[in-house]
Amino acid sequence: MHIPSSDEYPVLNLSHALTVILYEIFMVGRPVALPRPASMEEKELLYDFFHQLLEAVDYPEFRREKTEIMFRRMMGRAVPTKWEFYTIMGVFSDAVKAATGRKPGRS
Predict the structure, then answer these.
(1) Whole-number Å distance between alpha carbons of 85 and 75
(2) Contact 80/37 with Cβ under 8 angstroms?
(3) CA-based, 20 to 30 A from 11: which of 29, 39, 59, 103?
(4) How many CA atoms lie within 13 A of 56 on its CB side?
């Protein structure tokens, strides 16, 4: 592989050379499918399950509201993909079920 450079300084830093190569692959290659983010409805379901989890583990009542707000903010910044959403939902569901003996549902 050859990356054209200046005759005065014909050497590229490894990170710069890699950037050029990856750019060319990106421009020439087929488009990369970006992961789909979780929908707003899915996020609301996640928040509901988180609420149920806090109740199931008997999280202190006086701290629940602020903890739920913090979780909403954190998930809003994270922009979870659908795959991440379903993985987290599975964990929350199993945790609520283990703590209460019942499967969680929409409250």
Answers:
(1) 10
(2) yes
(3) 29
(4) 21
